[in-house]
Amino acid sequence: MSTLPAPTAPTAENGAGPTTAEPPDPDARHRLTAVTGLAALSLDAMASVAYGPEAIVLVLAAAGAHGLGFTLPVTLAIAGLLAVLVASYRQVVAAFPDGGGSYAVARTYLGRRTSLVAAASLVLDYVLNVAVAVTAGVAALTSAFPGLYGDRLWICLGVLALITAINLRGIVDSARAFIVPTAVFVGAILVMITVGLFRDAPVSTAASAGHASVLADNATSVGALLLLKAFASGCSALTGVEAIANAVPSFRAPAARRAQRAEVALGALLGVMLIGLSVLISRFGLQPVEGVTVLAQLADASFGHNAVFYVVQFATMVLLALSANTSFGGLPVLLKLLARDDYVPHVFGLKADRQVHRHGVVWLAVVSAGLLVFSGGDTNTLVPLFAIGVFVGFTLAQTGMVLHGRAARQWGKALLNGVGALLTGVAAVVVTATKFHDGAWLIVIALPLLVALFELVHRAYGRIADRLGVGRIPEPPHRARSLVLVPVSSLTLVTSKALTAAVSLGDEVRAVTVCHPDPEDRAHADALARDWALWNPGVALVRLPSERRSLGRPITAYVRHLAKAYPDTQITVLIPEAEPERLWQRLLQNQRGAVVAHAVRGDTDAVVCRLRFRC
């Protein structure tokens, strides 16, 4: 009987050799496909076409109409850098399928300290991206409806709360929610470019009519420095390209392959839109004016001042606001990797049912809300701080990939990454220098402070690990004499059950009660002692005098006394607490158990056991 040939094992990309088939992923429904990954992680990059070409035009406007003629060449240079970045981050995805992007690359090839610089730059960029995206989207809304301008901060906070709530349900849910806005925006831009290419002249200039031109009256010559500044400013359109490489674990298996497809699709769409818009700027001889965006002028020139014009504006506004979602997809994964390496609290590594790093999502939302309040919802306050961090990350990632290519003897890839590192490094220096007095100095200060914070957390975890003997084989367990203390204040069923549990746990059990000097408390303590003697539970009642109205200190002092007298004895403080059935009834409790537990845990090495009895 003939048999079917055995299936051939799939081969990994980039010559990694054969791999075994991956087991089914039970959480696949909570992970991204290439399409949903594009919607969830590329909104920042997609939305950048709304301000990237404008950034180029505004710089070149210093050289007058002649300077604007260099818009397309500068854009082509940026598109070339985009192609280099996409190729580089495809390599990053293949080499580091656990995510982390520039942090993972720098950690492997550039050293621990450099990797922390990369991580800090990404954290700052992600947080600023949320604030800038939300304020930019709301600014577009208030431009259309000026009556809402006074409430822009509350609108910003509302949009942020909406995006946070969607992401707390899972990255797949956020991707599904944002597929339609992304498709509408990309479709509108591509149709606008196509229609504009068939126009010999602008259909309408109503959008810019009555607005002052920002072309310089005393135009300067177009020199290398001006072109370099325009190139660096236009590179703001590249923010978000790294997000997919940072969040590879969020994709369905084969995760690396799906992430690479999403990266290529992002690069292709972004490149076509950037070049197409620049061609239209040159074709229509567009000049930047105050109060009207370049994208709005292009829509007006291509479609006319009609309903389609407003559709483009509305789609731009929505996508700008929602582009904050890129940070919610990338930063929690980065924080998970930092938590794994002991650079941030380990709580950021926890994952909820829907594959959501909720602590990272909530932390990002809280810090971004603080930035929104600080800026008053004003985009111009935040823009000078934006994009510097991502250029630092680009440069470090590609420098690391140069070393990766050398190690693998892939000289072509090493050269490609080297060129990219040089260009993004130059862009980082130029953007920092030109925006330094506008607020970029804050990033220059915040970056090393954040690295110092990572180091502080790492050292703290190192001391804890050394104290706990992490990585060393501990002594075998042995039985020690056990002494259990039970704080009591009255004779109840709770007291009886607590003592029953205590005698089951320890070799010796002592009940302790705190006695205060005022007559009422002293009478209560005497009554408890008499009732205890009559009850005779077989457990000694120890009275702990306290001159002050304190409950926790006398017990902790007694625990320390016992620990000194019996150094080989394991002391446990078992705290009985009644727990009412309904939540609101728990507010009626006196919280004595919590007070004692906090004091004992903070001042002694005794084991604290809070024994709750449901009423």
Mean pLDDT: 80
Structural class per helix/strand content? alpha/beta
> Percent of residues in beta strands?
5-15%
At CATH level 2, the architecture of the largest domain is Up-down Bundle
Low-pLDDT segments: 1-22
Number of domains: 2
Helices, by number, come to 24
- What Rg, in angstroms, do the CA atoms define? 32 Å
Pfam families: AA_permease_2
Subcellular location: Membrane
Region (Disordered): 1-29
InterPro entries: AA/rel_permease1, APC_K+_Transporter
What is this structure, in a nutshell?
The chain is α/β, with parallel strands linked by helices and 615 residues long. The chain is built from 24 helices and seven strands.
Q: What would your notes on this structure say?
A:
A five-stranded parallel β-sheet has the order 5-4-3-6-7, with helices on both faces. With 615 residues, it is of the alpha/beta class. It is built from 24 helices and seven strands. Helix 9 crosses helix 13 and helix 9 runs antiparallel to helix 14 (307-322). The chain has two domains: 34-461, Amino acid/polyamine transporter I, CATH 1.20.1740; 481-614, HUPs (Rossmann fold). Strand 6 (569-579), helix 24 and strand 7 (607-614) form a beta-alpha-beta unit. It has helices at 34-41, 43-47, 52-60, 64-68, 71-95, 102-109, 112-144, 152-168, 171-197, 224-234, 243-246, 255-283, 294-303, 307-322, 325-340, 358-375, 379-382, 388-407, 411-434, 440-468, 493-505, 519-535, 552-565, 592-603; strands at 11-12, 17-18, 481-487, 508-515, 540-545, 569-579, 607-614. Helix content is 61%, strand content 7%. One of its GO terms (cellular component) is membrane. GO terms for molecular function: transmembrane transporter activity. The chain crosses the membrane at residues 58-87, 116-141, 153-172, 178-198, 264-287, 307-335, 356-376, 382-403, 415-433, 439-457. It is a multi-pass membrane protein. InterPro entries: AA/rel_permease1, APC_K+_Transporter.
